[in-house]
Amino acid sequence: MGDETRPGPGYRGGMRTFASIVIGLLMLAILGVLFAGMIGMARGMDGATSNRLMRYRVLLQGAALLLLIFFMSLLRG
Description:
By secondary structure, the protein is mainly α.
């Protein structure tokens, strides 16, 4: 009787694919911001821009970590 509310195996496979894509895109965004900061530092970028890029990187890392925790708890069991 309780099986009607449980998602089927196709749902979990789709969620895993979606989670992998989202987390992968966030990782690429983190790498992009990191490399932009490193290239800017090598070119002598001003401190304000470097600081802003560092804040973006930290925010993206936090978002990736929260989504990873959320999807792992959602897909567990």
